[in-house]
Amino acid sequence: MTQEIWDLRKSILEGRYDDALVIVDELELMSRKSYIRNIRSFLIRLIIHLIKNQVEQRLTNSWAASIEGSILEIQDLNLQDNKTSHYVKQTEWEELLDAAFDAAIKPASAEVLNGLYTPKRLEAIVDKSQIIKLAQAFLDLTYTNSQKSLPGAIDEMLSELPGGKEWEEGK
């Protein structure tokens, strides 16, 4: 990125504004890709824990904290500096969720029931569409809740997961 900034400065100083605008567009695209890459890592973490919850039919404090942390980080990363626009619009998650699910299977297989299933076997027993639908529902909360109200909304959804009532009651 340092080279792009140097080129931008040079273009402006030389009065080559069309070239400068092309560089600005490239920098903007690079920035967006970086945000999406970070969001993707939190999506993978979210999906790993949703897979564990679906297969093991329980919810631990650790999993709940990881799910909540992932959603909070995604909300923060996805909100652009103007505080009104998002890098990923609410209707644009399908491709990212599908790719994140595929990336989450292998690490999830190492964690689900202490590594009982191979990635291929785990993928066969997990209801991918249900996981993606649930992940989308958690993501939807980031558009309808403030940073302050989001943790409470997440807790409500967590209590509806398998084992969620027991988790909520501290059992």
Automatic annotation (TrEMBL):
Domain of life: Bacteria
InterPro entries (alphabetical): DUF29
Pfam family, one: DUF29
PANTHER family per UniProt: SLR1203 PROTEIN-RELATED (PTHR34235)
Protein name as catalogued: DUF29 domain-containing protein
Species of origin: Hassallia byssoidea VB512170
